[in-house]
Specification:
With about 300 residues, the chain is mainly alpha-helical. It has 13 helices and 7 strands. The chain has helices at about 35-40, 50-65, 75-90, 95-110, 135-145, 145-160, 165, 200-210, 230-245, 250-265, 270-275, 280-285, 300-310; strands at about 5-15, 15-20, 25, 35, 175, 180-185, 190-195. Strand 6 (about 180-185) and strand 7 form a beta hairpin. It is globular and about 60 Å long.
Length: about 300
């Protein structure tokens, strides 16, 4: 099966719109094809569309490999057995739900099958964000020697950025006078402003003076391109190992830590929501479950009894 998608990316590069091309979805059964634009409108919009489409079709290909290509035997029971097999392999509930959605889309829009009964999906897992303590963050930041790498981690933490946002920063996005950092077209294709700390800008200013980037604040190896997200993730992982922190955290945990530390310092949840760029305050409320602001005031009954005995 050929997988193709053609859609227009709204992102502008060099002042002009870029047309991104990917293969069309072609139905092997009747030879018809679905407009790539229609596929994109149905499912994914933005710069990550192509990557997510590849993930979807990996799941589709794995499904048909399990059936050994017998499309005629596909039914709701087959999809259910496949989902159970994925769960038995230890894959996450989110992964299984994505696989079901991908197959549902393929059956309806590509094979033109009538809508089937609702598939039984595994319950969405509720997980708390992984955070670092303030001391661990300081150890991490102080351990970085490379100026470029230090600037990346400083901005990620002190401005609460996603990795996709920090690698796409431009020189003009740092406004020292107003002490704000502009994030262009973040998640949900929205611009926002967040904090620009004095400590972070001092590191960035030092980095700019030495490296003298021209367009992107953090240019990549390829000319005219920004640093890749994976490169930034590797910087964090390497530093984490050097410091000896054994928590299961990623560079995104710096963003979680930023929000949690603000909450513990008494910053209103609504302000944190704006800084992080969350559409719903419910997303921001997750940090109330990992904050020690109120939990730290509660004394264990056993500790209280011990204090009375002394």
């Amino acid at each position: 099966m050929k997988i193709n998608l053609l859609y227009r990316d709204k992102k502008t590069i060099g002042g002009t719109r870029r047309l991104m091309r990917f293969p069309f979805l072609r139905n092997e059964v009747n030879g018809t094809r679905i407009s790539g634009k229609k596929c994109a409108m149905h499912w994914w919009q933005g710069a990550t569309a192509a990557r997510r489409l590849k993930h979807t079709y990996r799941k589709r290909n794995a499904f048909f490999a399990r059936l050994q290509g017998t499309e005629a035997s596909i039914n709701d029971a087959t999809v259910k057995k496949y989902a159970l097999a994925l769960l038995e392999k230890g894959l996450s509930h989110a992964y299984v739900n994505q696989a079901i959605s991908a197959l549902k889309f393929y059956f309806h829009h590509v094979l033109k099958q009538p809508k089937s009964a609702a598939y039984v999906r595994p319950k969405k897992e509720s997980k708390l964000p992984d955070v670092l303590s303030l001391n661990e963050v300081m150890r991490l930041l102080k351990a970085v020697k490379n100026l470029k790498h230090k600037a990346i981690l400083y901005l990620t933490y002190t401005s609460g950025l996603r990795v996709s946002e920090v690698v796409r920063l431009r020189l003009e996005d740092c406004d020292r006078e107003r002490r704000v950092l502009k994030v262009r077209q973040g998640k949900g294709r929205k611009d926002r402003q967040t904090l620009l700390s004095e400590a972070a800008f001092a590191v960035v200013e030092q980095y700019i003076g030495v490296e003298q980037p021209e367009d992107w604040l953090f240019p990549g190896q390829r000319e005219g391109r920004h640093l890749t997200e994976r490169s930034a993730q590797k910087v964090f992982e390497k530093t984490l190992a050097e410091v000896g922190i054994r928590k299961q955290v990623s560079i995104h945990s710096l963003r979680h830590s930023f929000a949690t530390h603000l909450l513990e310092n008494g910053i209103d949840l609504r302000y944190i929501q704006e800084l992080l760029g969350h559409q719903s305050v419910r997303t921001t409320e997750r940090y109330t479950h990992v904050s020690r602001r109120d939990i730290g005031r509660i004394q264990s009954p056993l500790d209280r009894m011990s204090a009375l005995e002394d």
